[in-house]
Write a structure and sequence with these properties.
Layout: H1 2-14, E1 29-33, H2 38-49, E2 53-58, H3 61-73, E3 77-82, H4 88-102, E4 107-110, E5 115-117, H5 125-153, E6 156-161, H6 174-194, E7 199-204, E8 217-219, H7 222-233, H8 239-252, E9 256-257, H9 261-272, H10 274-290
Parallel strand pairs: 1-2, 1-4, 2-3, 4-6, 5-8, 6-7, 7-9
Helix pairs in contact: 2-3, 2-8, 4-5, 5-6, 9-10
Length: 294
């Protein structure tokens, strides 16, 4: 098996698939969706630490402007724009906005996201369409809009924000799991597809940390919101550390960026024993998290 892997690695290198890519340039030009708060704002501020130039996009323009001001205060350059990622024409306009503001982009961060939870039979179809439009099609739109731009300029980087929920699917989170798993699948597809064009793809899969996502959640079980907020608050790694980990992964060309140890270990356990993982370990983990018995 090791010999086969070594041969495959050699063949890929010969075909122009490098083991490592160049890091982001100094003062990177980045477009960040969902930049109005939470992880989006943390990513913008981490780019500001690199003296980056950031197009902060959010459906809430006032929130995007606050992020842009924070980036400028931190030593970067920033322009705020309104964008609903569920609308392809609005995402395509970000390419033009980045060109006008900074002469182009080196990085697109598809970060905008929402959540839907509850038992499958209780979730309205309208909520499915809403979350698919933002979490999955928003990422599709971002990739589709920026790939031609990156190809034309000779390279670039894509950072798609998914979740550990895209790797390990917990019950009563069907719409969220499905959309985040779709983002993982899209990223896995694009990684080898875009390598010859010198476009790197990284998918970020964190677990719990404090963000604004619960403010944009549709749920059939309000008690879940309190539990998730509790788990977010006690996480050891919060948005600034997650953002730093994500951009470090982009720097070295990693496909998967898993900042939280619990997410990494759960993913490994799932791959090692998938049947036992879902039938025994996940129910046990959920009982521990919720304090329920039985």
């Amino acid at each position: 098996m090791r010999a086969v892997l070594r041969e495959a690695s050699t063949n890929l290198a010969v075909q122009g698939y490098p083991a490592r890519r160049m890091s982001l340039p100094d003062r990177p030009r980045a477009v960040v969706t969902g930049a109005g708060g939470g992880l989006g704002r943390a990513l913008c501020l981490e780019l500001a630490r690199r003296r980056g130039r950031v197009l902060a996009a959010d459906i809430d323009l006032a929130a995007a402007e606050l992020t842009a001001a924070a980036v400028r205060d931190a030593g970067g350059q920033a322009v705020a724009v309104a964008c609903d990622v569920a609308q392809l024409t609005q995402v395509e306009r970000l390419v033009e906005e980045a060109g006008a503001a900074f002469g182009g982009a080196d990085l697109i961060v598809n970060n905008a996201g929402v959540a839907v939870s509850g038992p499958m039979a209780d979730i309205p179809i309208a909520d499915w369409k809403w979350i698919v439009g933002i979490n999955l099609m928003g990422v599709v739109h971002g990739c589709r809009a920026f790939i031609p731009h990156f190809k034309a300029r000779g390279g670039g980087a894509i950072l798609n924000v998914a979740s550990a929920a895209g790797l390990v699917c917990a019950p009563e989170m069907g719409p969220y799991n499905v959309t985040k798993a779709g983002v993982v699948a899209l990223s896995e597809t694009l990684c080898p597809e875009l390598k010859p064009a010198k476009i790197s793809v990284t998918v970020l899969c964190p677990t719990f940390f404090q963000t604004n996502i619960m403010q944009a959640t549709r749920t059939q079980k309000p008690d879940q919101v309190h539990l998730v907020e509790k788990l977010m608050a006690r996480a050891k790694l919060q948005a600034p550390e997650v953002a730093r980990h994500a951009l470090a992964s982009v720097d070295v060309g990693e496909l998967f960026s898993l900042p939280h140890a619990d997410g990494s270990w759960m993913w490994r356990l799932k791959r090692l024993a998938p049947e036992r993982f879902y039938q025994t370990l996940i129910p046990r983990y959920l009982r521990k998290m919720t304090g329920r018995k039985g």
